[in-house]
């Protein structure tokens, strides 16, 4: 009977593949549900754009704490993705509501950021602070979960910054591109009608 790294590596590869498939399915289902709720194909992408930054934050957290990236790290990133999507849904919904009240896109984005700044920061910071005791734990049982906790804590922290800066900027840019595209279409239609 052989014991070695081969079996554990094979199990880890299978676990990684399974998590990747389920994470892909979760993101797909989240996209579909958000698209139905917001009646838009673009806004779910704006909401989910912070997920890769949560992954970057998780990697930075692993570097800061000198923790190896493993199977449980991926589960932490999956959990962080849920928090990130929630924060972005709240922000984009607030922007949409301000636009429905008649504000132009820039003012709607600014007002939504002011309105949702505190809830988004509090959600992210309290999640991070709540996980700090686990990050500093020294017991053997806690060390088992530390990679997952690092991924979740730093993924949420990094995504908070992206949610408050990058997502509103993308929303405004996409709205401007859409507005200019519609203006160009009107110009083309009016020029073809005059000819």
Mean of all residue-level pLDDT scores = 86
The stretches of 5 or more residues where confidence is low (pLDDT under 50) are 1-6
Beta-strand residue percentage: under 5%
The biggest sheet amounts to: none
Can you write the helix and strand succession as a string? Answer: HHHHHH
- Rounded radius of gyration (Å): 21 Å
Number of helices: 6
Q: Helical residue percent?
A: over 70%
Distance between the termini: 85 Å
Total beta strand runs: 0
Shape: elongated
Which class of secondary structure composition applies to the elements?
mainly alpha
Short description:
The protein is mainly α and 195 residues long.
Kindly describe this structure:
The protein contains six helices and no strands. With 195 residues, it is an all-alpha fold.
Task: Please give a handful of descriptors for the protein shown.
195 residues; mainly alpha; elongated; disordered N terminus
Secondary structure layout:
Blueprint: H1 5-38, H2 43-48, H3 51-65, H4 71-100, H5 105-135, H6 140-194
């Amino acid at each position: 009977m052989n014991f070695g790294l081969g079996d554990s590596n094979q199990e880890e590869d299978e676990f990684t593949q399974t998590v990747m498939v389920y994470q892909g399915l979760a993101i797909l289902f989240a996209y579909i549900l958000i698209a139905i709720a917001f009646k838009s194909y673009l806004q779910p992408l704006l909401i989910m754009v912070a997920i890769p930054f949560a992954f970057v934050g998780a990697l930075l957290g692993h570097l800061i704490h000198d923790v190896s990236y493993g199977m449980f790290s991926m589960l932490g990133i999956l959990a962080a993705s849920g928090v990130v999507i929630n924060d972005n849904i709240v922000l984009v919904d607030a922007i949409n509501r301000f636009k429905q009240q008649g504000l132009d896109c820039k003012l709607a984005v600014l007002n939504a950021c002011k309105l949702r700044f505190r809830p988004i920061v509090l959600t992210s910071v309290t999640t991070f602070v709540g996980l700090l005791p686990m990050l500093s734990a020294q017991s053997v049982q806690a060390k088992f979960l530390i990679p997952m906790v690092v991924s979740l804590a730093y993924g949420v922290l990094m995504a908070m910054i992206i949610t408050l800066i990058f997502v509103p900027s993308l929303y405004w840019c996409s709205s401007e591109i859409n507005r200019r595209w519609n203006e160009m279409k009107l110009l083309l239609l009016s020029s073809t009608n005059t000819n």
